[in-house]
Amino acid sequence: YSSGFDGEVKALPVLRAGERWRLPVRLKRPHGLVNPGGFDTELWLWSQGVQASGQVRETRWPQPLGRTWRYPVEQWRQSTRESIFRSVSDNRWAGQIAALLLGDQASISAKDWEVFRLTGIAHLMSISGLHITLWAWMASRLVSAIWRRSDGFGPSWCLRYPAGHAGLWGGLCFAAAYAVFSGWGVPAQRTVCMLAVANLLQWRAYRWPVWERWLLAAAAVCLWDPWALLQPGFWLSFVAVGMLFWMPPQATVSGAVATPVASWRHKLVKQLRQLWREQWWLTLALTPLTLWLFQQVSLVGLGVNLLAIPWVTLVVTPLTFAGVVWSPLWQVAGWTLQVLMTVLEPLSQLPWAVWRTAAPPVWLGVLGLVGSVLWIGSRQRWVRFVSAVSWLAMVCWQSPRPEGTVQMLFADIGQGNAVWVRTARHSLVFDTGPRFGLDNDAGQRVLLPILQHMNERIP
After folding, report:
1. Residue 423 C-beta-side C-alpha neighbours within 13 Å
2. Which site among 169, 205, 341, 367 is 20 to 30 Å from 34 CA-CA?
3. Which residues, in sequence order, are CB contacts of 391 under 8 Å at separation 6+?
4. pLDDT of 62-120, one tens digit each?
5. How far, in Å, CA of 203 to CA of 191, rounded?
6. pLDDT per residue as tens digits for the range 364-407
7. Is 296 left (phi over 0), alpha (psi -120 to 50) or beta?
8. Would you call 343 exposed, middle or buried from its count of C-beta atoms within 10 A (0-12, 13-18, 19+)?
9. Is 45 helix (H, G, I), strand (E, B) or coil?
10. What is the C-alpha separation between 115 and 298, in angstroms, rounded?
11. How many CA atoms lie within 13 A of 63 on its CB side?
């Protein structure tokens, strides 16, 4: 690829958080491409409060106006990111650590993101409710332990305020602080809001049923951010939590001899069975919703998540947190990520690693989700048979092809042309649009999502 430009290009200045610059810019109303199965850029910008976009004009060179200390969190985030890349020898692992700790998803390469998507663990490699909840839990236990041992600091704090309540609100404060440090993204805001609702109910000793708590948390998130309803993460997270509530209790075995070794082994086996059970039910429940939203689901995701969730949650994430205190631990975290990728990369290259379907209609998506709910909540054979039929209808859906006619789709690619002609047995693509860079063109950004949206086989 060559741009055809043969002039002298000035290097861009290094930007630091908190700096003020004067730039000659040309502003315009935000504009994005609108295509079936494509990303709605205009809607996303509107939900983020961005009212204009623009470009820097060439009339004058940007002028620095000085620095300000009004953005200490952003400056701390930038310095932490630079420390990560200095401490980790390989930028690949440094980028993944920055994504886990700072929410800097742009630091992960497109190739690694594809591996995470194909293996079904993309939710683990960014700031999510799991990471913030883990941070809140650890902080809550620490605050409670310190609170119970407050006699050494003078009058016991427990006499004034219970240690359990102190742990609740201390964990919430630490979770909110970490959410702000990670960039205060929408998933982080949603998790902090849910934790605040749960803590409030527990603090006031309200004995609400779990479904009422679940609905209250969802309502609070929607009041805080109404645009969350348009984000797949909102539906995936709340449906996953709802399915965990809907799961029938696990049967217990009575009459076992309670020796110390047997008790330890019994607890370990019980935890492993519970992990398998929860992951299996969640995979079954979220498959229709995932196909509805993304038109693909990982077939290796069940086994990969059984290994990756404990590894990332109990090993990688604590090391990334501890690296803030002692930076050499970031290198250790990079080694643990390298071990994880050694397992993920061969699995992502399997020809059957992902199941793809065309985008189903709304009624079929709802039918598949209802089928998953009925399967999990009922043990009657006829109910499970009906739910299995509805679930399979959703999973095996294919877009009907035109019989005796021709479908033509003119893709919105900005400048240029791209036409997709579809018949009962053939698909023809005329032109793929312009190229924007070495690894960026209209074919990848526009045409591939359209073809995947219709489950068109790509040779």
Report:
1. 5
2. 367
3. 284, 287, 288, 368, 371, 372, 375
4. 888 888 878 888 889 999 999 999 999 899 999 999 998 888 888 898 899 999 999 99
5. 18
6. 888 888 888 888 877 788 888 888 888 888 888 888 888 888 88
7. beta
8. middle
9. helix
10. 11
11. 5
